[in-house]
Amino acid sequence: MGTKGCAGDPASAGSRPSGADVAEGLCQELLDSTFFQENWERKPFHFCAAEKGCSANRLPDALFADDLAAAVGRAEGINLKMFRSNETSDLETPWHSYLAGFSMVINQADRHLKVLFDLCKGLGDRHFHHVFAVVYLTPPGSQAVRVHTDDQDVILLQVWGSKHWTVYNAPTHLPYTEEMLGKEQAVPGNLIGPKELDFTIRPHDVLYIPRGYLHEAATSTEASLHITLTVPTSDYCWGVQMVKQLNSELRSGQLLTPDSQSLCQASLAECLAGEAPKDELDGKIQDMLSRFLSNLSAEAVLKGFESRMAKTNLGQDQQFSQLSEGSGNVLISRNRRVRLMYGVTCFCEEGSQEAIFGRADGRCMRMEITPSSSKLIRSLTDTPQWVRDLPCSDSFERLCILHILLDAGVIQVFLRGPEESLEMPQR
C-alpha cells in the first residue's frame, strides 16, 4: 500500500520529517499568494504529486501504522468514531469495526499525535489562527459518509492507499453551520450540480475543498488514510463574530440596564401567549441594540476574535499535553514480537472465515475472522516472530488482527527485544 509497498511501514524511522517540516513543505509548495488569490474560499484544488512532486505533502514519510494504532488507543471513547455508509458501529472494539468494513474517524487527532499537533500549530501560526486535524482511515470497498457539505475549509493530505473523490458545486456560498447539507438526510438531487473535480487521490497528493462544496469519496481495492487539516472558517466570518461579540457584551453586563437584564432573563412564554406588551418589549430591545451598535467597531470585533482564538489555541496545547501522554491500551507495534500463548494451538485454512484455537486443558474457541486475516493467523506459532514480518498486505490491518487476538488471550506480546528478558503482559 502507499508508495513504499505495505501501508504505513517506515523505510527508516530516523529519517522522518517533523510536523514543522510537513507544515513548511505545504506552505512553500501550495499555500502561496496564488493559492489564496485564486482558490481560498473560491474553488477546490487538487495538487497531484505525480505531476508536481512530493514536497507539498511529506506526511506519508512522517506518519505510520504504529502511530495511528497508538492514537486509536488514546482516542477511544473520546474522539474516535466508526462509520460505514453514515451508520455507526456497535462492535466491541475499533479493531473489530475496521476489519468489518467501518471507517475510523479520529476527531481532533492533533491532540493525540505530535506530528499532527506540530503541523497544525505551524499552519495556524502562519496562516489560519487555528487548525485542527481529523484522521480518516477507510478500509477497501467502503464509503464513510454520503455526499455532503461542510462549514469549514479543509486541506486533505493523502498518506497511504488511494481514494476516489468527486467534488461538485456549492449550493450555498460560504454556508453557516446550520446551512450544511447531507449530514442529517441525503442532499436533494436537484442541488447536486456538475462535477468540479473527479479523480483518484494518491500518497503525497493534496486536496483543498472550500466550505460549502458538495463532495464524496470511496475506496476501491485498497485501504486509504488521509488527514484533513480543518480551518473553522464559518466561525471566522464577520456575521458569526459580531453575534459572539454581542453575546460577550451581554454576559459582561456592558449593555444591560436593570430593565434589559430582566428582559434577557425572562421567558418567551408570556409574549407567545399574547400576555406581554410588545411595544414595551420592542423599546427595550431597541435600546439594548442601540447601546451595542454605538460601541461596535471593526477593532472591537477583531480584538474579541483574537481573544477567543488565544483561548482555543491554549486549550489545544493543554489537551495535547494531557491526551498525548502514554500509549493508551496499545501494546503491539511493528518492532515487537508475538507468538501463540503457551499451550494454545491454532487451526485455520487459508482464505477461511473461521479460526479455531485449542488450549492444553481441552477447551476450544472458534473465532470469526476475515479471509484476509487467515494467512497471518496461520503463520503464528509458539516461536516469537517480529510483528513487521507477519504476512499481511496492510500494516494497519495486521495490527488490528493482533490486537483482537491479544484481547482474546491467544497470543503473547514481548515488550523487550530477544537479547533482553521477556515480559508477558496479562490482558
TrEMBL record:
It comes from the Eukaryota. One of its GO terms (cellular component) is nucleolus. The keyword Nucleus applies. GO terms for molecular function: histone H3K36 demethylase activity; histone H3K4 demethylase activity; iron ion binding. The keyword Isomerase does not apply. It holds the Pfam family JmjC_2. Belongs to the ROX family. This is Bifunctional lysine-specific demethylase and histidyl-hydroxylase.
